[in-house]
Amino acid sequence: MKIYAHRGASQDFPEMTMAAYEGAVKQGADGFECDLRLSNDGVAVLWHDADLERCANNKAVVSGSTYAQLKEIYPQILTIDEILDFAISAKKSLLLETKHPVPSRTAIEDVLVAKIKSEAKRIKSAEIEVNVMSFSWLAIEHIKQLDKNIETTYLLNNYMPWINARYSSARSLGPEITHLQKDPGLAKRIKDSGRKLNVWTVDQPSDIRLCYDLGVDNLITDRPGFVREFLSTI
After folding, report:
1. Is domain 2-231 classified as CATH 3.20.20.190?
2. Which of 95, 115, 168, 222 has the greatest number of C-beta atoms within 10 Å?
3. pTM for this predicted structure
4. How far apart are CA 57 and CA 71, in angstroms?
5. What is the rounded CA–CA span in Å between residue 184 and residue 64?
């Protein structure tokens, strides 16, 4: 079971900053989870929310702001270029989540696919995996149309019907940990469908143990160091 740092080691550092990802490396993470949005001038930046209010106390909307404006408001903001360069140098895999709905629709997938293809040699040389995730069924299918060789994960909410997952082209499915708590049998259904199981966001000992027992492939956590230490005791 691989450990992915959710927005970096986000329990100990500001989420999605270089400090958080550097901290994740020191804590023994196998890879990084990142959220991505497009700025108004088409730069893919690491940001979870639609606006900057929660993390930067500013109501600027990512899709309505240029990259220069976002950088001025929050100097720690990272781009896809920066996180990919760091992941390659640190030899850490990436789970890249595209956020939806957004005004630019699937433009973020266009940017990511172009970037992944242009960096294919460096990614292969570093021996890392790059997987694009989304709660949007259409976004996942759009990636398949652009490049069927790119690994994808269809993320699942508790209320999402199984039929959506069944007919997704994604090679991995990503339920929330609360989904597995309520329905551990979901793990077997996912495995029986021939897909990998990527679970978010797993921070508590009982949930780490559950993921271990259910054969989860990739565990996404705010606490990579704690998860690594806990797994060493099993």
Report:
1. yes
2. 95
3. 0.97
4. 14
5. 41
